Amino acid sequence: MSIFEEKPEAIFEDIKELLSKGAKDRKHAFHTPVFSSSSKIKSVDSRVIVLRKFDEEDFTLNFHTDYRSPKILDLKHNNQSNFVFYDPILKIQLRVKTLSKIHYSDDVALEAWKQTRLFSRKCYLTMKAPSSVTFKPEDGIEEHLKNVDPGIDESEMGYLNFSVIKNAIQDIDWLYLSSSGHRRLKIILKNKNPIFEWIIP
Question: What CATH number does residue 195 fall under?
Fold first, then answer.
């Protein structure tokens, strides 16, 4: 890890590799970051999401969500957002500032939907919207779909509630925790080119 303490370029390359692995490997620590959004109406709201894609060319992070979710309204009011990643083994934390764009019923959403497994599509077949009040503990899934995947035809109904949130990375705050001394680096992206600033942890 000592190479990272002096070479920002090496850190930047490692970050890209970690994000790529996080999007592809469901067991990777970066697969489920915390995503935060806010709006003019309410304060910051945070939740764990599943990282679906990291695009190294566009420097974007993608995840999927139900279009009826409250976070959609947040992002319509204010597209400034934030991700927090942490790997307890590597002792690396990333705080990533992003600008979010909602993709609903467009080419981006359709392409992602085609690659979504039946098990995941089932989440978008609920009659009740996410965060809606219920009078008993439930997930909103119809009884005939309990413990089974929907058929292809039935699953397509879920596309009406499916959306992709594409988040353009603005800057990254990298923190490495070490008993020999913490290290912190800010990476600002200007026209997708990194500008490095060492800062006190």
Answer: 2.30.110.10
Pick from 176, 175, 170: which is nearest to 195 by CA?
170
List, in order, residues 6 or more apart from 193 with CB less than 8 Å away.
none
The answer to the question of residue 141 being in a domain is: no
Residue 10 pLDDT exceeds 60: yes
pLDDT (tens digit per residue) in 19-29: 999 999 999 99
Contact 64, 113 (CB under 8 A): no
Structural tokens at position 201: 């942890």
What is the average pLDDT value for the chain, to the nearest integer?
92
Enclosing domain of residue 88: 2-116+162-199
Q: What contacts 40, CB < 8 A, 6 or more positions away? A: 77, 78
Tell me, letter by letter, the H, E, C secondary structure of 45-99.
EEEECCCCEEECCCCEEEEEEECCCHHHHHHHHCCEEEEEEEECCCCEEEEEEEE
Please state the pTM of the whole predicted model.
Answer: 0.92
Contact 35, 22 (CB under 8 A): no
Identify the pLDDT of residue 132: 87
- Residue 69 pLDDT > 50: yes
Residue 155 lies in a domain: no
Kindly state whether residue 142 falls inside one of the protein's structural domains. no
Number of domains the chain is built from = 1
